[in-house]
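FIELD: query
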Amino acid sequence: MFRTLAALIERRGDVTHAFGALDNWHFLTTLGRRPLVYTAVVPSAGPDLDLWRRISTIVVESDRDARSVIHAGVAPSRVRLVYPGIDLNRFVPSPPPTGRFRLLFASSPASVSEFEPRGIPLLVELARRHRDVDVVVLWRRWGNEHEAMHALRALRPPGNFSIEYLGDREMPDVYARAHAVVCLFGDGFGKSCPNSIVEALACGRPVLVSETCGLAGLVEQSGAGLTTSRAVSDVSTRLTELRDRYRNFNARDTATAHFDVRRFREAYDAIYDDAMHDTRAVDADAIVAASEATTRGA
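FIELD: result
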């Protein structure tokens, strides 16, 4: 059905734009009848230059991903770095809350299999080591919630570890109640630019991210927060440093410089214009036809 719809709809546009992982086989073997702009929001598990050749422009959301794609053999002229855009008039700074230090994690797992790569056991242990810090996980009602709650209870989280639901609140209100935001994704897991980190920076909240996160380099270089390995001792040390240096981070400035939605739109306007003038696009139908023939043969 997807192939049929793509064949009917794709030719009606000037440019096709898709978002996903660079190893998203069902997208990349189906699309490409028009110049294809592909935004890699999730790192690729492995390069596939033959699959990528139909893409006019590969857009990445971190400098780490840009280096990875170029190292895999993609010409630098086909790679663009565009950070996600955010409405800086909606996500605005507010004074930090009073009372105990609150560390927020706003990317709950969809299943038990995601506990480890999302860093849930790490957060539980971090709360155990820092009883004077409240570790708060914003939990979404998705996936098998009953199974996830059972697995969470099995970790025996201490009293300063808690889950919250969004309810009727807006996300800026959630960030306003936290001092800092944490994301300890494992290598190759999740978005290169997690929404919670981008939004937290816009709200003036410093962040603590794992070194495997695509945004780690920007966070460290811009002074928007700290990076850490996924060893609990290192996370603990960096959390202490985050608290000690809390007033010295410039989270909002980093968001303003890199995540303004107006700059995001301007970048994609230029990318679309370049894609429409890509001489390789004249062979797009042939590329798709060859791919479909190969798929049928397999």
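FIELD: remark
Residues 261-276 form the longest helix (16 residues).
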